[in-house]
Amino acid sequence: MNSAIYTNIMRFILLAGLQVLVLNHINFLGYINPYIYILFIMLFPVKNNRTLFVFLSFLLGLTIDIFSDSGGIHAAACVSIAYVRPVILKFSFGTIYEYQTIKFDTVEFSSKFTFIVIMTVIHHLILFSLEIFNASKVILTFQKTLFSSIFTIILCIMITIIFSRKTK
């Protein structure tokens, strides 16, 4: 089996497992909850089949929904960020993305940080908008989005630093 396929299968299983077994039970101050499973969507290889990628993102979200009993909101948020990911990649990485040569371990930290922040905030905004689904509670939606995003971004950056394979 191809090592990239094996890596992505393991990443899917580990991130989904960590999310449903550990992170879903963190509910700090009532509205801070990290969602690091979106790292799978962020780190998925750029050159792969887009249809497969959107399907795998849906499957990831659905897996989290099944274990969280959340009625499809994770699947909707995952498909949304999977769909807009090429635009965010182009914005964050510029010409490197144009030539499809992004290696997440070797890009500048600022580009990686911008990408993680934008993807996380979009995911969380969609997720909490669907969870709360009440226009009169827009402040709560933004509060949950902001604080959960900060916590998720910190964890995602720590994980990418810890598991990066720098070759210099």
Automatic annotation (TrEMBL):
It comes from the Bacteria. The chain crosses the membrane at residues 12-32, 52-68, 113-133, 145-163. Keywords: Membrane, Transmembrane, Transmembrane helix. This is Rod shape-determining protein MreD. It comes from Gaetbulibacter aquiaggeris.
